[in-house]
Specification:
Radius of gyration: 26 Å
Structural class: mainly alpha
Distance between the termini: 60 Å
Largest sheet: 2 strands, antiparallel
Strand order of the largest sheet: 1-2
Strand content: under 5%
Helix content: over 70%
C-alpha cells in the first residue's frame, strides 16, 4: 500500500491544497456547476484536470522507497509532480482539438502519451508495489512482440506512436475511460464513505451490530458478520474493512471463546463480502456498470441476492460453531449502551436518499452518491462530539478522500493500459476465442477454468485491477456461450475478490493477523472453510440467473421465490457440512452426503423435462436426514438422562 510522507510546513500546505482542490473540483463538476455558469467542458477535459492533480499529489505525497526521509520531498519528485501536472493539463487544454483529429498522430501527443504511461507505472510502484507494475509492463511489451508470436497470442502489429496515442487519448479503450470512473462514480462513493467513517457513521454501524446480535450465542462473531457487511458496503475494500471493524470485533471474539484463527477468519471473510454487498460495492462495481452499459442501480440490484446468500451461509456457520463449541453471547455490561442506538436515525436517511435517488428517481450513481453524502453530513453533524470538531473532520474527509482517490486512480490508469493493449492488439478477442474453444467441452469446464484464471490474476492485487483484467479477458467468452452478461461479469468479479481471504496471498487475512495475534496463513485456512460458499454462489447464479434481480425483471416471481428458497436451503446444508454439526456432531460420511445434496439442490440437471425434480428430491432427502438427526439426538439425550 501507499507509503505517505509526513510532510510539514509549506510542502504540507501544497500537498493538502492539491488534495482539497482535487475533491473540490470533483464536487463542482459532478454537481454541474460549470453548466450553470455557462461553461462548456468535455468530460475528458475534467478527467485531464483530475489526472493532473492525482499525478501531482502522488509524487509529492507518496514516498519513493521505504527508507527515505518522509518529512521532505526530493527534487526529482518535484520534477515528476510538475511533469504529471503538465501531462494532465495537456489533455484538459487540447482535448477539444484532439477529439476532431484523433487519427492524426503528432510527435507531441506521442511524447505526452509515453510520459503519461511511464508516470503511471512509477506511481503504481509507489502505491501498490512491483507485482502490478511487472504485469502492466508485460502487456506493453506484448504490444511490440504480438505479431511474432503464434497461436492465440498472435496479435496485430502496433508501432510506438499508434500505441501511446491510443493508450492516453482514446476515450473508450485506454486510460481515460477508467480514470473517468474514478473521477466520477468512484469519487462520489469514496467521498460518501469517508463522511460516514470520519463523522462516526461506522462506529454507529458497529454499535448496531453488537447490540443486535451480541447477546446471542456466538454474538461477537455474528456482530462481526453483520457489522462488516454494513461497514464494508461503504468502504468497498476488504483490508480497510478488517482494520475498521476487526479492531473491535476480533478481540471480542477471542475473549468469548473463538480462537485467534477463527476470529481473524470470520472478520476476513465478512469484510471481503462487503465488496459484493449493495448498495455500495466499491469502485469495481462501477467499472462493471461501465463495461455492461447498464445503470449502476441495476448492477447493485442483481448483486443483492447472491450477497445475501453469501452472508446467510457465513452466518449459519458462525451460529453452528457457537452451538458446537458452547460459545455464549456478550453480557449486558459489554453491550453498547441503549442511548448509542438512538444514533441509528442519523445514518438511515443517507441510505434512504441513496436508494431513492438511484432506484426511484433514476438519477446517475454519482449524483445519488453526492446527495447521500450531503444527507449523511447533515444528520451526523447532529452529534455534539462531532460538532465540536467539525472543521477538523471536514479536513480529514478531504485529505482521506484525496488519498483514496490516489490509490484508486493509479490502479485504474494501470488497468486502462492493460485494457488498451488487449484492444489494440486483438489479444482480448483471441483469448475469448480460446476460452470459447474450451467451452466446447462444456460450460462447467469453462466456468472452472475461468474461475481459476480470475482467481490467479486477482492474487495480491486490488479488486478493481483484478476485475478489470478478467472482465476484458474472460467475461466476453462466458457471454458468447450463452451466460447472461451480468451473470458472467458477476462470476469473474466474485473470483477476482475471493483471493482476499484465500492463501497464499490473502490480503484481508494479513490485515487480520496482527489484530488476532495469529498466523495469516492459518487464518486463511479457516477463512476458506467459512467462505466456501463464495466459490459456489457464482455457479448458482450462472445456472440459475433468475436469482439475479434487475430493474427489468424477466422471470416470474414464483420462479424467483422457488429458486431463492432452494439456494438458501442449499447454503444452510453447506454450512452444516463444513462445520460438521446439526443438533449433534456429524460423522464424516454424513457431512459428505450433506455436501453433495447441497450441490444437487441447485444443479441444473434435467430429469423428466424438469430441473425441479432433482432439486426437489435432493431437498426432500435432506429434510428427512435432518429430521432423523434431530430424533437421534433426542433419543441419545433421553438415554443419557435415564443413565444419570
Amino acid at each position: 500500500m501507499a507509503r505517505y510522507r509526513n510532510l510539514s510546513g509549506v510542502t504540507s500546505v501544497i500537498w493538502k491544497g492539491a488534495l482539497f482542490l482535487l475533491v473540490s473540483i470533483g464536487l463542482l463538476y459532478i454537481l454541474g456547476v460549470h453548466q450553470k455558469l455557462g461553461i462548456s467542458l468535455y468530460n475528458e477535459q475534467y478527467i485531464g484536470m483530475f489526472f493532473a492533480l492525482i499525478m501531482f499529489s502522488v509524487f509529492i505525497g507518496v514516498a519513493a522507497r521505504k527508507g527515505e526521509d518522509g518529512t521532505k520531498v526530493p527534487l526529482y519528485d518535484w520534477v515528476l509532480a510538475i511533469v504529471g501536472l503538465i501531462v494532465g493539463l495537456y489533455l484538459f487544454i487540447f482535448y477539444p482539438v484532439i477529439v476532431f483529429d484523433f487519427a492524426y498522430i503528432t510527435t507531441e501527443r506521442v511524447i505526452v502519451g509515453l510520459i503519461s504511461a511511464l508516470l503511471v507505472l512509477e506511481a503504481l510502484r509507489r502505491v501498490i508495489g512491483w507485482i502490478l507494475v511487472v504485469i502492466v509492463a508485460v502487456f506493453i511489451s506484448y504490444a511490440y512482440v504480438a505479431p511474432y508470436l503464434g497461436g492465440p497470442l498472435k496479435g496485430n502489429a502496433t508501432d510506438t506512436s499508434q500505441l501511446f496515442n491510443y493508450l492516453y487519448f482514446d476515450a473508450s479503450g485506454g486510460m481515460i475511460s477508467l480514470i473517468g470512473i474514478a473521477a466520477t462514480l468512484g469519487f462520489a462513493f469514496i467521498l460518501f464513505g469517508q463522511v460516514m467513517l470520519q463523522f462516526r457513521g461506522g462506529d454507529i454501524m458497529n454499535d448496531i451490530a453488537l447490540f443486535s446480535f451480541g447477546k446471542y450465542r456466538g454474538g461477537t462473531a455474528k456482530a462481526s458478520v453483520f457489522g462488516s457487511s454494513l461497514v464494508g458496503s461503504i468502504t468497498g475494500g476488504p483490508v480497510t474493512n478488517v482494520i475498521l471493524t476487526g479492531s473491535i470485533t476480533i478481540p471480542l471474539m477471542k475473549k468469548h471463546g473463538y480462537t485467534g484463527e477463527q476470529a481473524g477468519a470470520v472478520e476476513s471473510v465478512a469484510s471481503t463480502g462487503g465488496q459484493i454487498m449493495p448498495p455500495v460495492m466499491g469502485v469495481a462495481a462501477f467499472v462493471m456498470a461501465e463495461y455492461l452499459g447498464l445503470p449502476y442501480a441495476e448492477i447493485a440490484l442483481a448483486a443483492l441476492i447472491p450477497a445475501l446468500l453469501f452472508y446467510f451461509c457465513l452466518f449459519s456457520q458462525v451460529d453452528l460453531l457457537a452451538i458446537r463449541n458452547g460459545i455464549k453471547g456478550l453480557t449486558k455490561g459489554e453491550l453498547p449502551k441503549k442511548e448509542n442506538l438512538k444514533k441509528v436515525i442519523l445514518i438511515i436517511p443517507s441510505f434512504v436518499i441513496l436508494i431513492y435517488c438511484m432506484f426511484v428517481k433514476g438519477y446517475t450513481a454519482q449524483i445519488s452518491g453526492i446527495y447521500a453524502t450531503a444527507t449523511a453530513l447533515l444528520f451526523l453533524m447532529l452529534q455534539p462530539q462531532v460538532r465540536k470538531n467539525w472543521l477538523k473532520l471536514i479536513h480529514n474527509v478531504f485529505v482521506e478522500t484525496g488519498k483514496t482517490l490516489i490509490d484508486i486512480t493509479v490502479v485504474l490508469a494501470a488497468a486502462g493500459i492493460i485494457v488498451g493493449v488487449t484492444g489494440i492488439t486483438g489479444l482480448g478477442f483471441n483469448l475469448a476465442m480460446l476460452l470459447v474453444a474450451v467451452g466446447d467441452h462444456g460450460l462447467f469446464i469453462l466456468l472452472v477454468v475461468s474461475a481459476l484464471v480470475a482467481f490467479i490474476l486477482g492474487m495480491g492485487m486490488p479488486s478493481v485491477a483484478a476485475y478489470t483484467m478478467v472482465a476484458v479477458l474472460i467475461a466476453p467468452a462466458l457471454a458468447d456461450l450463452g451466460v447472461e452478461p451480468i451473470a458472467a461479469h458477476l462470476f469473474v468479479f466474485y473470483f477476482a475478490i475471493l483471493c482476499n481471504f484465500t492463501p497464499p496471498i490473502a490480503m484481508a487475512c494479513f490485515a487480520a493477523g496482527p489484530i488476532a495475534k495469529a498466523s495469516p496463513n492459518k487464518i486463511g485456512i479457516e477463512a476458506m472453510k467459512l467462505g466456501i460458499v463464495g466459490f459456489i454462489v457464482p455457479f448458482i447464479f450462472v445456472y440459475q440467473p433468475q436469482i439475479l434481480l434487475s430493474t427489468n425483471y424477466q422471470y416470474g416471481w414464483v420462479t424467483f421465490i422457488i429458486s431463492v428458497l432452494f439456494a438458501l436451503f442449499s447454503c444452510f446444508l453447506l454450512a452444516v457440512s463444513i462445520v460438521g454439526y446439526f443438533k449433534t456432531k456429524l460423522s464424516l460420511p454424513l457431512r459428505i452426503i450433506f455436501l453433495l445434496l447441497s450441490v444437487l439442490i441447485f444443479a441444473p440437471i434435467t430429469i423428466f423435462d424438469s430441473t425441479l425434480f432433482l432439486n426437489g428430491a435432493a431437498t426432500l432427502l435432506s429434510i428427512i436426514l435432518l429430521i432423523i438427526t434431530t430424533i437421534h439426538k433426542k433419543m441419545m439425550s433421553s438415554v443419557e438422562t435415564e443413565v444419570v
